[in-house]
Amino acid sequence: MSGTAFTSHALGRPWCQAIELTDGTRLLMRPIQPSDAQMLQAGFLTLTPQEIRMRFLHPLNELTAGYAERLCRIDPESEFALVLVEAKPPSEARIAAVARVAIDDDGQEAEFAVILGREIRRFGLGRYLVGQLADWCRTQGLKAMYGFILAENRPMLDLMRKMGFHLGPSDVDTGVMLARLPLN
């Protein structure tokens, strides 16, 4: 894959990859599981308030057990989520990234969101994960994928432009941009 600083190898299960970054970090990409809730909460504790605001578009002081459980128990008919987990023993591993998408009620488009831990940024994983979400949306026959991004989140807006997303103001908030990718 061009522009990446990692290699990936399929693990023989859908949406599962072994990933090695050029710095030697090893990760596993796989669909999120209900058993990930505690690991998701632990990973949330490593995020700065700014990182949380960039992802959730507002301050969030904690990821409650209930909210973590909800994020990990997806509806397979309308949601899809991938995690990048450190390739370590389960008691030591933590979630380094989450990418998720949810199909709108009309069944035509899906909203996506991605968050990467700071230690794995700049390796091309954001682009890779967004591409994986787009691929899943295509398998569902969706027309477009979209996400809301703070106008100050220049790295994410730049990535969206490079990936062919159309950017424009959102009706959510004046400080939020809408990134939309046609999937046809």
From TrEMBL:
Pfam families attached to this UniProt entry: Acetyltransf_3
Keyword Chloroplast among UniProt keywords: no
Keyword line: Transferase
GO function terms (MF aspect): acyltransferase activity, transferring groups other than amino-acyl groups
Segments forming domain N-acetyltransferase: 27-182
Alphabetical list of PROSITE patterns matching this protein: GNAT
Descriptive protein name: GNAT family N-acetyltransferase
